[in-house]
Specification:
alpha/beta; single chain; Cytidine Deaminase, domain 2; Rossmann fold; 23 strands
């Protein structure tokens, strides 16, 4: 028979949300309540009759509560296979009563770490008895129901109502699956803390990767693929996954991917002059800084207004009404901002399908952490590309040093280039991108595509010349040959920033000198594949 009637419940919870209501409903059904410490106290204060775990086991809680449920009378009552004669005989011989329902949630390890507790307190918040009971009950789900989340109490009570005080096997199986996911996630948080925070291991012998609270998406990168969004358990940086959606359709897999790329680049300008980032297919197609967001929007859009259609927009400061009105003039999939004014909300409200996300802040672009990429048969793991350079780190390698404005544009172009797919070439002029070449198999083609984008913009807007003229050009990796650099010079660039390090550096430097370019080396590469 699939249905199992609940006669005895063991409750031991750290999070007491909904505890009294659950205990009251169980007691009303004649369920015997067994409990521990603070949980028993809370139930008694609500007027419920509770059997202490120490009375059940015949042993007191000891060692500051570390040992209370680790006892045969608890785990025998959980693990016994009820229709196995040998198990039934052992229960009778040792006066072990069956436990039909376990309600447990675990010590708040995550919250303890997040608030900066010291090592001893963190260790004390590693739950031992809780996971043991959860795993025992989940393993024996043929006979035992396990509830680990206060959000599931209503469903549990609904099941008891529908089944006249019993639970179905299908329900218990779902509960068991969730229970093992909980203990796996909990242990992964602990293992990560020991490896990374406690012992400073960058790449531990075993890497536990976790995720929780999935949002099932309509489909993946393509309609025939399935997809979901998970957020990491344990302390982590708030990002696009935690943004509040104020309006619009649900976000797709591609929306999340592109929005993350936009947010990461906008974060480079955190606390700086107003900046606008426009992204299409995870690549920037326009970036600008100006005295106002509205000016920055127009300058960013001018870089590649064709690619901006259906793109993602992210800004680094509160989004105002005038900028929102301007953004609404073209089709935009997603708009992201730390905060949004009431006027901006009103403007976007007319675009019902536009997704408007508020992040509350921008992530630290220099934060640490690991990035993980699955490959066939394994995971590639590396530290985040959080390297940074300043003007003081640059090495002038040409006869002519860059002017003050060229230097500013070099650094701006370099900031954008690190967020462009390799091979990446970015032209920048007066704090705005003039042309971007992304994802080509050779650097010369990226240079030519970026120059072509700049020329197209000049033609569209009726400018007397391309904004590539007088620009600084950034390359995410060294020029292996002079051809890519010469393509930039032909487009009108006057300054170059690149990592250097090619065996043909001397040849490239000579070509730059012949063309009258100023060139600086960063000594740092920013491939993005």
């Amino acid at each position: 028979m699939d249905d199992v009637k609940i006669g005895r419940a063991l409750l031991s919870v750290s999070d007491k949300t909904g505890l009294v209501e659950l205990g009251t409903a169980l007691a009303a059904r004649g369920v015997e309540l067994v409990s521990t410490g603070g949980t028993a106290k809370a139930l008694r204060e609500a007027g419920l009759t509770v059997l202490d775990i120490s009375d059940l086991t015949g042993f007191p809680e000891m060692m500051d509560g570390r040992v209370k449920t680790l006892h045969p009378k608890v785990h025998g009552g959980l693990l016994a296979v009820r229709d196995n004669p040998e198990h039934a005989a052992a229960m009778a011989d040792h006066a072990i009563g069956a436990i039909d329902l376990v309600v447990v949630n675990l010590y708040p390890f995550e919250a303890t770490v997040a608030r900066g507790a010291d090592r001893d307190e963190i260790i004390e918040n590693i739950d031992i008895g809780g996971p043991s009971m959860v795993r025992s009950a989940a393993k024996n789900h043929q006979f035992v129901t396990i509830a680990t989340d206060p959000a599931d109490y209503a469903e549990l009570l609904g099941e008891l109502e529908a089944k006249q005080g019993a639970t179905s096997l299908a329900f218990r199986r779902r509960c068991a699956a969730k229970a093992y996911a909980l203990t796996a996630t909990y242990d992964s948080m602990i293992s990560q803390w020991f490896a990374f925070a406690d012992q400073g291991q960058l790449f531990p012998d075993m890497l536990a990767v976790n995720g929780k609270a999935p949002v099932v998406l309509r489909y993946g990168e393509n309609p025939h693929q399935q997809a979901a969004l998970y957020t990491p358990a344990g302390p982590h940086t708030r990002g696009i996954a935690q943004a509040e959606q104020l309006q619009g359709k649900e976000l797709s897999y591609n929306n999340y991917n592109d929005a993350d790329a936009a947010l990461e680049l906008a974060a480079e300008f955190r606390g700086a002059q107003p900046a606008v980032v426009i992204v299409k297919h995870a690549n920037p197609c326009g970036v600008a800084q100006r005295g106002s967001l509205l000016e920055a929007w127009h300058e960013a859009l001018a870089c590649d207004s064709v690619s901006a259609f259906g793109g993602i927009v992210c800004v680094n400061t509160e989004l105002d009404g005038a900028t929102a009105e301007a953004i609404c003039e073209i089709f935009t999939e997603v708009v992201i901002a730390p905060s949004v004014s009431e006027e901006a909300r009103a403007a976007f409200a007319r675009k019902k399908n536009l997704r408007l996300l508020v992040t509350g802040d921008l992530p630290d672009p220099r934060r640490g952490g690991l990035s993980v990429k699955p490959i066939t048969g394994g995971l590639l793991v590396q530290t985040r590309d959080n390297g940074a350079i300043s003007a003081a780190d640059l090495k002038v390698v040409t006869r002519r040093a860059p002017t003050e404005q060229e230097l500013k544009d070099c650094l701006f172009a370099w900031t954008v280039a690190r967020h462009v797919k390799s091979n990446a070439i970015v032209y920048a002029n007066n704090g705005a991108t003039a042309g971007i070449g992304a994802g080509q198999m050779n650097r010369r083609d990226s240079s030519r595509i970026a120059a072509m984008k700049a020329a197209e913009a000049a033609e569209k807007y009726g400018w007397p010349q391309s904004r590539a003229v007088g620009s600084a050009v950034a390359s995410d990796a060294f020029f292996p040959f002079a051809d890519g650099l010469l393509a930039a010079a032909e487009a009108g660039a006057t300054a170059v920033i690149q990592p250097g390090g090619s065996i043909r550096d001397d040849e490239v430097i000579a070509a730059a000198d012949d063309a009258g370019l100023a060139m600086v080396f960063t000594g740092m590469r920013h491939f993005r594949h």
